[in-house]
Design a protein that fits this description.
Layout: H1 19-26, H2 35-44, E1 53-60, E2 73-81, E3 94-95, H3 98-106, E4 110-113, E5 120-128, E6 131-139, H4 148-157, H5 161-171, H6 194-203
Antiparallel strand pairs: 1-2, 1-6, 2-3, 4-5, 5-6
Helix pairs in contact: 2-4, 5-6
Length: 204
Amino acid sequence: AKTVTVGISRKAEALPEPFAPALAEAGVSPEEVRRDHRLLLAALAPLVEEVPGATLYAVENLGPQGEPVSGTTLKVLKKTGTSREIPSRADEGAPLEGTKWLAVKRSALFFGRGGRDGRPVLVLPLYRKGRCARLLLMHTPCRERVEPAVLAEALQAFQGRLDEVEAEVTERGIPWSVDLLAGAPLPELFSQRVGPLVDRLLRR
């Protein structure tokens, strides 16, 4: 795999590759993606090799303020690419749980590994009239080598996670250097608990 050295534009608002065609194939309108989430997708795009498949879910029975409640459910609306071969507990409807629940609750992207199959995934909340109406789960195999500076910029865009990683490193009396991110595990860099993640970074 090529080493990625492409920088991230702070002004990027258009849906970037490889996410744009994946959203289009799933039937997602760009207007459903919040502006701050578009910027996050732009930050993550240099890390993702491709999006070979995606699953689009309806989010139903939310609370009066658009929040998930005990009766909130997911139901598969469409599968594309490799996702067609993967059965989902929500094919006929299921409770909203786990990382998908957290994505709706916090209005936040999840970039990590699926809890059931361990595949790298990105969960993207989608909005209509200011409420989360749908979720898109994309399979996101990551590039093998990404320059540490690119990883650092993506981490900083991702809810300030770079600060958390740097703080954990310096708390252990070790000077911070972006070079510590070289070869960092993806997508765990964005989702693993910070303590165990830094353990992995310092062991290499």
